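ok trying this again, last paste got cut off
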Amino acid sequence: MVRVKSFFTISFLIIFMFIINPMNMDTDYNKASYDYYVENGLEEVGSNNLVTGIYLDYRLFDSIFEAAILFVAVSGVLFMGRKDESSL
């Protein structure tokens, strides 16, 4: 019975969040960066596609370092998860 109540409570909260969230769509949370990218994106990046320009120019180092961190984390998990045959 507790599981059923928990399921309905969580379902209600999720549905409530999806109903309330579109009501706040008219609020501009980060208008300054949007204006900067729209005004200066073409001159600084040189790409007609602003999304590609932002991803490949402004965010390139973020993406490279995120990939490096992911590689180190996966390598660490694989190293620690390896079984040592001599200890068995």
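PB: full thing came through this time. Residues 78 and 84 are 12 Å apart (CA to CA).
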